[in-house]
Design brief:
By secondary structure, the protein is an alpha+beta fold. Helices cover 14% and strands 34% of the residues. The chain is built from two helices and six strands; from the N terminus they run βββαβββα. It has a four-stranded antiparallel sheet with strand order 3-4-5-6, with no helix packed on it. Strand 1 and strand 2 form a beta hairpin.
Amino acid sequence: MFYIYCPYCKEHREEEEFHAKGQAHIARPADPDACTDEEWGEYLYFRKNPRGLHHEMWVHATGCRKFFNVTRDTQTYEIKEVYKMGERPSIVAQDQNPTAAKQA
């Protein structure tokens, strides 16, 4: 078991009080009605699942019930930082795919 810091309650609580809700910082399409089925499907279903640093959205389900973001190492489960919705992370997860880095 590990503890997670809630930036709203301002205390560390047991992990059972929280639920991961997926990748953070997903931008909703500006005009959903103008999206193709493929674009809308990309937005709804396709997420990054990197090995290493990853920005995730979590909810304090049995506490304040507010959503917040976490930068977590998916290999070690270590939480690097916790920050409120609307804030930017101070630790930026880089693309872990070396092929993509070579193409950029």
